[in-house]
Write a structure and sequence with these properties.
Two copies of one chain form a homodimer. By secondary structure, chain A is of the alpha/beta class. Chain A has three domains: about 45 residues, 434 Repressor (Amino-terminal Domain) (Orthogonal Bundle), CATH 1.10.260.40; about 130 residues, Rossmann fold (3-Layer(aba) Sandwich); about 140 residues, Response regulator (Rossmann fold, 3-Layer(aba) Sandwich). Chain A contains 13 helices and twelve strands. A six-stranded parallel sheet of chain A has the order 2-1-3-4-5-11, with helices on both faces. In chain A, strand 3, helix 7 and strand 4 form a beta-alpha-beta unit. The first copy, chain A, is elongated, with a radius of gyration of 26 Å. At the A-B interface, helix 4, helix 5, strand 2, helix 6 and helix 11 of A face helix 4, helix 5, strand 2, helix 6 and helix 11 of B. Strand 2 of chain A pairs antiparallel with strand 2 of chain B, so a sheet runs across the interface. Chain A binds a DNA duplex (16 and 16 nucleotides) through helix 2 and helix 4.
DNA sequence: CTGAAAGCGCTTACAG
DNA sequence: CTGAAAGCGCTTACAG
């Protein structure tokens, strides 16, 4: 009950009859420590329940093994999984995630300061944007920054190829001979949305097709449902519609059903993201699946390599694009194809 | 480019013509610092871009403002939201989340060690279990532990009232005059599952009803769909079924649709959790909604109070149960009721 | 209201 | 292979 002092390396050293340096070296895995000494230290440590203090180590070694992860609370249902993947993958690499949240409409500057105060070894920013000044500040403190699923010219970025994904959906629509084509966009000025749109519309134009309907949502199920309601209450007749997120696409499909329309017979629907719900039987949504594991692994490998190279600050920032995967499901299949499988 | 030394409080002190102590006090918000001095320090700090080093502060002040959050990667879709809420709420309180992941079938011991090494001020364990020894270890290092949505006799726990929730569903079923009642359980030996089951079955028994069907899933959509398939392929005819998670309930409903059954006319379905997808139009699932905000806030308020009270270790651990909310939706409504609304 | 100084628990040259 | 000692950047009695 009494505040018995925390056990430190000094205590272990005394008990094991060695110097504090030796205890430190033992736990650092220094191979110069004689095996017998090592054993003795470890056994004493175990006995008294000693574990090294990472905070002290951080101060002294100037490296915390902490990685800051900044996430916006996005409505898209993709990011919770991303966060979980990062936490898990970091753990495997002996690092740990210090997680920060920013409002999806704000930028990450507010919290970046705090992140740096914790002396994180690196910073991963997902689903929000950063100012150039903040990037500067990170550089000053030798903290490499990685943008996840967003690109910025002066920052290392890793991102699914939204543009290419949009093109793939366009190709699919043309291949399926849909003629009256609509599009449900995400939040207008997000990079993600712009890229998905410009890929989709650009490729459509190359095929000589122009969309005949256009509405805007905010990536959420709710906005998709609302868009669907007004679409199906109108006299617009579409063969197919591309939605900038899976959640919106599912909302729109539910609205279709509630309005007595059948997917894909009355209207084909495609989304983007590849969230688990998209593959549920009731939805079976055609979509571009984000290569989540590759994105996460790519980010962390890149980070590791950067941290290991002493001259990383001299290297120009790069943007890495990873292709998504077209998942063709029943929401765009023609009836015959369904029968065929 | 060159490794210009990090700016420390000593630099600021020199530039501002005060002692390092004064700089420290200024940033600690010490009211004894003369306003003019304070201004000067802050302006110099701003000019040179100084911010306090939290790691050093942590070592010195023996408090890191770090809270460890241990999460299992549960299939239930409830926890990603919980994590996001914790991160956000902690940030508001000037604390930060160090997030750890454990396999859902393991216990938290493996990572707890690491958590303690980071000298977290407190530990929140969600969706996994801990050994008594580990709880001991936490006590030794003065780290209060809170179990989230799980209870253990020797640990502070905060949890939705699973038992009561099960009873509410039973009452609803009886009220709706369902006679042939089934149950789809979660993973057999999880506490959550046991409590939901015993509440449900116990209350049913009090009404003189015994379930006529029972299957087991693992909380996932997939397992719910599979259970539904085999149920609807059998000659069992049920009026209603209670599933131990929303994801399973939705899977089962999708299987029902695919088998040509109508919900709730052919079979009524209820779940547990209150995940956002449950409220989507296509599902409209009756469920017990977890009081997520109250659970998170309750945990953090409790944590704050504990950290503020010097004698917290002498207080016996408590278990706090919060009631869930019955959300009656179309998956259990009788046809007439639907018409009525 | 302010400063000098000890101390938090490690790492890491340096010397042997 | 090991130890003595400086130092990481703060906080916080203690003294004035």
């Amino acid at each position: 009950m009494a505040d018995q002092k925390r056990i430190t390396s000094v205590d272990v050293a005394r008990l094991a009859g060695v110097s504090q340096s030796t205890v430190s070296r033992t736990f650092a895995g220094d191979t110069r420590v004689k095996p017998e000494t090592r054993e003795r230290v470890l056994s004493v440590a175990k006995e008294v329940g000693y574990v090294p203090n990472f905070i002290a180590r951080g101060l002294s070694a100037q490296t915390t093994n902490l990685v800051g992860i900044v996430m916006a609370d996005v409505a898209s249902m993709f990011y919770p999984y991303v966060l979980q993947e990062f936490v898990r993958a970091l753990q495997k690499r002996g690092k740990h995630a210090l997680v920060f949240n920013v409002r999806s409409d704000g930028n990450a500057d507010d919290v970046l300061q705090e992140t740096l105060q914790y002396q994180v070894d690196a910073l991963i920013i997902a689903a929000s944007t950063v100012s150039d000044e903040m990037v500067e500040a990170c550089a000053r403190t030798d903290t490499p920054v990685f943008l996840f699923n967003r690109t910025l010219p002066h920052v290392n970025s890793i991102c699914v190829d939204n543009y290419q994904g949009g093109r793939q959906i366009a190709d699919l629509f043309v291949r399926n001979e849909y003629e009256n084509i609509g599009v449900l966009t995400g939040i207008e000025d997000t990079q993600t949305n712009q890229q998905r749109q410009s890929g989709f519309l650009g490729r459509l134009a190359e095929h000589g097709v122009a969309p005949s309907y256009r509405a805007q949502g905010d990536y959420t199920y709710k906005s998709g449902y609302a868009a669907g309601r007004s679409l199906f209450n109108s006299d617009v007749a579409l063969d197919a519609i591309f939605c900038a997120s899976d959640a919106m696409a599912i909302g729109l499909m539910d609205a279709a059903r509630d309005a007595g329309r059948t997917v894909p017979e009355d209207i084909a629907v495609a989304g983007f993201d590849g969230i688990p719900v998209a593959d549920w039987a009731a939805n079976s949504l055609t979509t571009i699946e984000q290569p989540m594991d590759a994105l996460v692994k790519g980010t962390l490998d890149w980070m590791d390599k950067t941290l290991a190279s002493p001259d990383w600050k001299t290297q120009p920032p790069r943007v890495k694009l990873l292709p998504g995967t077209l998942m063709q499901r029943r929401s765009t299949s023609l009836p015959e194809i369904i029968v065929a499988e």
